[in-house]
Amino acid sequence: MVRLVFKQIQYRLLVSYLAVFASILGTFAIAVRIVYAHSLRQQLTNELTTLGQGAVTSAEFDHGRLQVGNDISVQDLIARGQAMQWFDLRGQLIAQQGKTISTLPFSSLETSQIQSSSPRIQLVTLPIVSSNNQHQLGYVRASQSLEELDENLQKLDWGLGSGIVMALMLSGIGGVWLTRQAMSPIEESFQRLKQFTADASHELRNPLMAIKSNVSVALKYPDGMRPIDAEKFAAIASASDQMAHLTEDLLLLARTDKATKPEQQPIDLTEILERLVELYQLQAQTKQITLQTNLAQSAYVFGDVAQLTRLFTNLIVNALHYTLKGGRVEVNLSRTGQSLIVDVTDTGVGIAPEHLARVFDRFWRADQSRAYWKGGSGLGLAIAQSIVQSHRGTITVKSQINVGSYFTVRLPLFAGSTCPK
After folding, report:
1. Does some domain include residue 166?
2. What is the reported pLDDT for 101?
3. Cis omega (within 30 of 0) on the bond before 222?
4. What DSSP state is assigned to residue 364?
5. How does pLDDT run across 90-144, given as a tens digit for each residue?
6. Of 95, 120, 145, which residue is a domain's last?
7. What is the domain range of residue 82?
8. What SS3 state is found at 280?
9. What's the whole-model pTM score?
10. Ranked by mean pLDDT, which of 4-13, 191-200, 268-277 comes out on top?
């Protein structure tokens, strides 16, 4: 399970790295395309301006009419996909030559235009002035198809896109190796820490048992013991019980964190829950809490009976401890598709919304809503989550302050189960 967590972290690091790298490459590609497209359009505008200026010098004004010169080769215009149009001062078309003639209405106010409709055409309009620069004779409009420019931009887009894809693929391969190298020492440190926790918990059990047994003997024969000493021994007994409980929880967590799967077999979950509810019915009655059940029959899962018992023990005990006098705790078991759903609901103190994300953290309690019971180790829900994950299930929680909590455990239904729908 821990290895799976590290795999998920490694995957998130790789995805984040590739996302950042893709953003950088995408920004660079967009910038290159914008600059390249602007350069091509500027170059085309300069060529059309030069063509138009040549047409201006060849135009003449004869007997009150604008005469078009013959210096421009129509064949050259057609070969280059260009065209020329001449207009009088009123914007009336006088003559035109070439290919891909623009259909845009004449405008003397715009010197450079682009016809966006098919076919796309770049236009440059220049005034025709008399040789003595005394008066204007008309206008000439040079145009050229943007088909070749668009093809060049499309090739650039394909080239940049292919380059980005190849770069991301190579970066992904390198990123897998880099993230593995980065996570390896962290995973090794975590494994050493986990092993230390398991070893320390295991070694602490013997001295704690010695302390508990000796304190029990002392409290069993209090003759000659001062009352204040008896109180101190009672405190020592209580502290040793809590430490023993904590070491057992840490040892269980260390074992469930291992990659090896627990010994599993078909288990009737209904039987486990019925036995637990019967076991904790007296505790519920003592606190004047209503403990109710609604269990499906013969609901089988494939798992470890000891771990599943500990899982639902923690949830039921947790609900009883955080439910006040006169409250209610419900344990429901149902089937949904190929899953078994166990709901443990209470009307207890509840959990604030901002704290829900940390409910399953080890040693965590909210300052107010979860501080009602001080006797636990702070590992109960962490152990529950660990057991659920080792059985390929999920556990979630919903809660409201002073309303209660709703824990839901989803486990895969055993393939051979005869649980009715």
Report:
1. no
2. 83
3. no
4. -
5. 888 888 888 778 888 888 777 888 888 878 888 999 988 876 666 777 888 999 9
6. 145
7. 59-145
8. coil
9. 0.51
10. 268-277
Look at residue 268 and give its three-state secondary structure: strand
- Three-state DSSP class for 409? strand
Domain termination residue (choose one: 98, 122, 145): 145
User: What gap in Å lies between CA 390 and CA 305, rounded to an integer?
Assistant: 13
User: Which DSSP letter does residue 357 get?
Assistant: G
* Alpha carbon 327 to chain centroid, angstroms: 39
Task: Report the C-alpha gap between 208 and 204 in whole angstroms.
Answer: 6
How many CA atoms does the CB half-sphere of 55 hold within 13 Å? 34
User: Do the domain assignments include residue 15?
Assistant: no
CA–CA gap between residue 342 and residue 332 (Å, rounded):
6
Question: Is residue 96 one of the residues assigned to a domain?
Answer: yes
Q: Which two tokens stand for residue 322?
A: 């955080």
Which CATH number covers residue 362?
3.30.565.10
Is residue 191 one of the residues assigned to a domain?
no
Which residue type, as a one-letter code, is found at position 280? Y
Q: What confidence category does residue 250 fall into, taking pLDDT thresholds of 50, 70 and 90?
A: low
CB 100 within 8 A of CB 122: no
